[in-house]
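Recap for those who missed Tuesday's class. We walked through two folding examples back to back. For each one, the amino acid string is listed first and its predicted structure tokens come directly after. Nothing is annotated here on purpose, so try labeling regions yourself before you check the end of the notes.
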Amino acid sequence: MALMEESTTQGLLQAHDEFWHLSLSYIKSIALTAALGLGIPDAIHHHGGGATLPEILAKTELHPCKLRALRRLMRVLTVTGTFSVVQQPPAGDDDSTVADASDEAVYRLTATSRFLVSDEVSSATLAPYMRLVLLPIIFSPVGEHICAWFRQEHHEPSVFALEFGQQAATVWEEGADANAILNEGLAAQSRFLVPDMLRECGEAVFRGIDSLVDVGGGHGGAATAIAAAFPHVKCSVLDLPHVVAGAPSDSNVQLVAGDMFQSIPPATAVFLKNVLHDWGDDECVKILKSCMQAISPRDAGGKVIVMDVVLGLGHDDKSNIKRLETQVMFDLFVMMGNNGVERDEQEWKKIFIDAGFKDYKIIPIAGTHSVIEVYP
């Protein structure tokens, strides 16, 4: 009886710990916001990839009175795996305080935090994308508004619009600063994801294609990478006029101002990277029907190439649970912002069929994304 009661108590204590961990998980995002805003990854990189607290404090130009607060911030960032830490032995035999000893610890960049150094330090940075995801207007608490959204009869307005009075897309289009953050963030993501996709399956996906339109391709980062890898493919980008107007003039791809819901320039294939997840099923069907009108017949290489998340694909073993968690959390993220959707295979299949496509092929690639070839 006593053993049973002890086991029950242990289970309740573990459940209590899990409860607190779940409820405080947003602190991880706050810590990341602070690390980026203060330039901590750059400060550690400046010291050769490893720096003590006083060195980080000096490089980030914080007041010395913030040393203890910085120690607490770095503790969160190391326990959660953003940085690693190596404790150094005391310099002498004197009785150093715990605080003094911890100030001698060396904080190092990990594979994760190397993505957080600025673009002035590394071209492989994902810091602009992280700033986009953690933008205050997105990251603001939405707890009471998501409950109101679930209780309303229709999908519109979105959770974001309930809180801020306008859709997220309007903020991106009308706010110059927000639009710049959006384009910088998506460009950084493309610089990382697209070369990986090209290495994994580029030859199979782009073989036989003469021309390609990157729909919603922003400033042309993805199309530029594809054109460099496959010089025979004539690449162009279709995006809204204000997006195209802000693109750099030295791009080696053609930039076309337009609306994907109205028409898409003709090409052998259409490329959609992280576009469809921003829209509900009805809007996706409209976009895909526009793609159908633009592409060549299948026997001439015609297809739509979708680079997006396929929920749950290849995540059966427990070692990939963090990847699946990322996918489902991002699904909730796009739902709150634009009423977007991350889809599983059956949900993808439905919108392809509803748009009039005959067949599709999913190619899993490293990370959270997959490539889907959709055939007319």
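Example two. Treat it independently of the first, because the proteins are unrelated.
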Amino acid sequence: MEMFPLLRYLNATRETLESQPARLHVVLGNEACDLDSAVSALVYAFLLYSLRKDSTEVVLPVLNIPKRDYPLKTEVVFWLEKHNILPEMLFFRDEVDLQHQRETGELQLTLVDHHQLAPSDSFLDASVVFILDHRKLERHPQSGGIVVEMVGSCCTLVTEQVLARNPALLDSVTASLLYGTIILDTVNLNEAAKRVTPKDVDMIGRLQPLLSSSINRSEIFQQLTNAKANVSGLTSDQLLRKDVKVTSAGDLKVGVASVPMMVKEYLQRPEVGETLSEHCSSEDYSVLVIMGISITGEVVHRDIAIYSPQDHLRNQLVVYLRDAQGEVLQLLPFDSDIVGCSAFLQRNIAASRKVVLPLIKEWLAKENF
């Protein structure tokens, strides 16, 4: 097997990390660790490594999940292994003690595919030196540079950075990693899904010539979609942990889980009511929001459920999401037999979690609990 530069970099970094380097620059993806977050962290870290002026500095891409949760990220596992990137070559959040590094050494932190650290990571705020993200800016960093642009995929911005700063890194492996991720995030450049922008199309056009002439864009999209939806081996609880973002205010903690199926289908799984109750208890969620999606060819469907054993919290959030921004989500209720659960078809298929999560944060900020 040919060892491409990105693979050599990951292997060498694993060896260097074991020596406990004093100077560490971590490129941290978001806590959902979807394909965009994972590939953005890997490729952007590789770019920074290639540009470093001090050979003693270690640049480390970190997937922002515990190692035990990696098998839950089925499309990430599929796409990375397709490019010969194995789990033992990766770095997970529970393998790198960022608090210790911050206290005892020199830590720099670049955030990709998010710009706001989780509340439990607030101690790292002062270490952030750069942010690269593709969602609406909710807060300005304390220091450092920032590139935020509302494109379909953070990998579009990573590609742009690589092309501008070291295009030689774009061999067949790095180009393919980025290409597939952008295709998945933009629903195969499907304008109906309202996630693709001209810059996404432009970057795909720049990456395409670097790949095999036999590459089939629709085939790659279908492979990744199938891998993301392949949850046959996952329990109902694991599905809720597969792709989740968490937000909080005071004593209230809200989980927003994306599942690779329609919520209506998820709620029909055996003993799912018990699973939701136990999951909220174990994760200390006051409310759990579940977002579902189904993609068949060019047709996209979405639905959403709000679960909470506390009726007043669930009802307040339901009303807020239903009416927010002139009924932007276009919610249509459907029956759910699960106690404590309100479920809706979401007719605005363009409103992904990047739209829903800020609405939940607004609700937490405005309500007087």
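Answers for example two:
The chain has a mean pLDDT of 92.
The first helix runs from residue 5 to 17.
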